[in-house]
Amino acid sequence: MPTVLVIDDDLMVREVLHDVLESAGFDVQVVEDGHRGLKILLDDQVDLLIVDLEMPGVGGREVIQELRLRESTLPIIALTSFARAALSDVLEMGVSRVYVKPFRVKELLEVVETSLAGAG
Predict the structure, then answer these.
(1) Residues near 51 by beta carbon (within 8 Å), at least 6 away in sequence
(2) Long-range contacts of range 57-60, CB-CB < 8 Å, 24 or more positions apart?
(3) Percent of the chain scored above 70 by pLDDT?
(4) Residue 32: CB atoms within 10 Å
(5) Residue 47 φ/ψ region, left for φ over 0, alpha for ψ in the -120 to 50 degree band, beta for the rest
(6) Is the pLDDT confidence value at 88 over 70?
(7) DSSP secondary structure string for all residues of the chain
(8) What does DSSP say about strands 76-80 and 48-52: parallel, antiparallel, or unpaired?
(9) What angle do CA 18, 32, 20 make, to 5 degrees?
(10) Whole-model pTM?
């Protein structure tokens, strides 16, 4: 079963994504900050990352940059609260899609499934 890691400082987003992804048959890990997320990404097998771009401390951009420096091709879906943050610089880092909060959970789930099917 594919593993999805969700890194977001918003408890409600973490809970909703955990429940929806788990119901869809994914193994789901959730953490509230980029530092913990990076530890999981470097220590465990993760098949897809969903990450909030704007978090205190180690944010989503730093997580993505670290992964790409390690030449990771992990599929990444970015979340943001600000439309202007969803610009081409994030897509240039190899992010599959950027969603502005609030987002449609069903649409995000479809992208997760498509991304994992393409990676497998």
Answers:
(1) 6, 7, 8, 34, 37, 60, 63, 64, 76, 77, 78, 79
(2) 57/33, 58/33, 58/34, 59/34, 60/7, 60/34
(3) 93
(4) 18
(5) alpha
(6) no
(7) --EEEEE-S-HHHHHHHHHHHHHTT-EEEEESSHHHHHHHHHHS--SEEEEES--SSS-HHHHHHHHHHTT----EEEEES-GGGSSHHHHHTT-SEEEESS--HHHHHHHHHHHHHHH-
(8) parallel
(9) 10
(10) 0.92
How much is the average pLDDT of 77-81?
Answer: 90
| Side chain identity at residue 113, one-letter code | E
Query: Which residues, at least 6 apart from 66, have a Cβ–Cβ distance to it below 8 Å?
Result: 38
Evaluate whether 116 touches 76 at the Cβ level (below 8 Å).
no
